[in-house]
Amino acid sequence: MNADLHCHSTVSDGLLSPTEVVRRAHANGVDLLALTDHDEVGGVEEARAAAAELGLAFVAGVEISVSFAGETIHIVGLGIDHTHPLLVAGLAQVRDGRDARAVRIGEELARIGIRGALEGARGFAANPALVSRAHFARFLVTSGVMPDVKTVFDHYLARGKPGFVEHEWARLDEAVGWIRAAGGIAVVAHPARYRLSHADMARLFDCFQAAGGEAVEVVSGAHTPEEAARFASEARRRGLLASRASDFHGEKESAVDLGRCNPLPPDLTPVWSRLLQ
Ligand code: AMP
Ligand code: MN
Ligand code: MN
Ligand code: MN
Prior knowledge:
globular; 2 domains; alpha/beta; 42% helix; eight-stranded mixed sheet
């Protein structure tokens, strides 16, 4: 099963429309796709229709921004009813803070002499409710400040850098609750990317499971093989379902294309065993 259960469209910070994401996934041999835009389900219906046209199995998804132990954590929801009122209201609340945050990022960049970044970032965001740091990064690349998006994050947008702005996202238990209320399965996205102590990482998974979270991305476009092995052990130890996901945003920006992740270790229970029921 070539499942790819985490990727982005122009509805958040991806470079392809929902239809283009689905077509690319199909062309790359994906058998089961989830579209998981940041804090937003506005692309689900278009993607589902495009998938139906191609006979590609599709589940509705979302990637919710959460604050935990001073770090931003991403919780993916899979197989959600994207119209569920509790989820819809929760996501609207998370998106709400994004515009004010974008204004502050623009101000911080202006302080170090980078002008017009807010307008520039807005120009790259197809969805005005969802201006992400990725849109700022694209603006800084096209305006010639930095050679590529990763370098922009390393110099300006990552925690501790001059354009980084602290922000309070959703609470972990809330985000998991919204996903469960909408009939979905909650997944810890790309856990190796979080700068957490061992104790805080353990607490993250404890709280996630206590709230009803059931799965972890073991194989991710954001993980090295060693990191995948580490979280495969975590999945075994905690009895978590395992997910496989490119986290594709676009051709030039993503290390791994749609459907091109490594397979899951065969002894793990794939999260899609529950999605295909
Ligand atoms: P935001 O939700 O606005 O904080 O933006 C987070 C998004 O920025 C992530 O989903 C990625 O798409 C992108 N991003 C974060 N860190 C990096 C990085 N080091 N290199 C490239 N893109 C990144
Ligand atoms: Mn992103
Ligand atoms: Mn993420
Ligand atoms: Mn993502």
